[in-house]
Amino acid sequence: MTKRDVIVACDFKNKEDTMAFLDNFKEEKPFVKIGMELFYGEGPDIVKAIKDRGHNIFLDLKLHDIPNTVNKAMRNLARLGVDMTNVHAAGTIDMMRAALEGLAEGADSERALLIAVTQLTSTSQERMQRELLINASIEDTVAHYARNTKEAGLDGVVCSPLEAAIVKNACGKDFITVTPGIRYPDGNMGDQSRVTTPAKAREAGTEFIVVGRPITQAPDPVAAYRRVVKDFLG
Ligand code: C5P
């Protein structure tokens, strides 16, 4: 697995639609993100089915529970052969350590990359302060959660492309950032608001970009994928 790549968010409702989309790719084998909808709808077999076609898998389930439960769950996810998965940093450093151990113990060979979610981009600063009683700015919270993630030994965090510099400043340039919110100025924004282009994400030093609709909804998904890869990887 390369240390920098474009991850295609396969936010399809079922296996049939997902496989029909992947059938477009004859030469490339894009890194695929499987989220909650597809995983809970189709079960763990969906991971094996896509893996068997030669794709790397980012399983985006954002685990958050007591350390023992997360440890056991991660062992099982490791057995599926995922290449990257994630937890919520809000679960504490102990929980993240337990997750990492489970992932290493369950793996047949190389351990999958483990990434933490800091603050979801859907959480506004106002709600974070009022409902979660976190009296800090979003930026300071992201930096603090990223430092906790690094202390727990994880590989990196999911963050908006505009927060990548904050994370790199707090945790060093080798700490991985995985960033969704990628759009072209000529494309449809969908429900994303804080976005950047693949080239700008590269300049920000992000290792992995997660791109969904600009590729999955494109008239020619393979051409759209190639454009993103060219602009991001150079
Ligand atoms: O279609 P689009 O490119 O917006 O897809 C982005 C993907 O990244 C989706 O799977 C979305 O759930 C995910 N994501 C996001 N923002 C976050 C975390 C995850 O858009 N903060």
- For the largest sheet, list the strands in their spatial order: 1-2-3-4-5-6-7-8
Low-confidence stretches: none
Report the order of strands and helices.
EHEHHEHEHEHHEHEHEHH
Might you state the CATH topology name?
Answer: TIM Barrel
Oligomeric grouping of the chains: single chain
**Could you say which small molecules are bound to this protein?**
cytidine-5'-monophosphate
CATH class: Alpha Beta
Strand content: 15-25%
The class by helix and strand makeup works out as alpha/beta
CA radius of gyration is 17 Å
CATH superfamily: Aldolase class I
How many discrete structural domains? 1
The overall pLDDT average reads 95
Secondary-structure arrangement, i.e. CATH architecture: Alpha-Beta Barrel
For the terminal residues, how far apart are their CA atoms? 18 Å
Name the shape in a single word. Answer: globular
In short, what is this structure?
This protein is α/β, with parallel strands linked by helices.
Fold blueprint:
Layout: E1 5-9, H1 15-22, E2 31-34, H2 36-42, H3 45-52, E3 57-63, H4 67-79, E4 84-88, H5 93-106, E5 113-117, H6 125-131, H7 138-151, E6 156-158, H8 164-171, E7 176-179, H9 198-203, E8 208-211, H10 213-216, H11 221-233
Parallel strand pairs: 1-2, 1-8, 2-3, 3-4, 4-5, 5-6, 6-7, 7-8
The chain binds cytidine-5'-monophosphate (C5P).
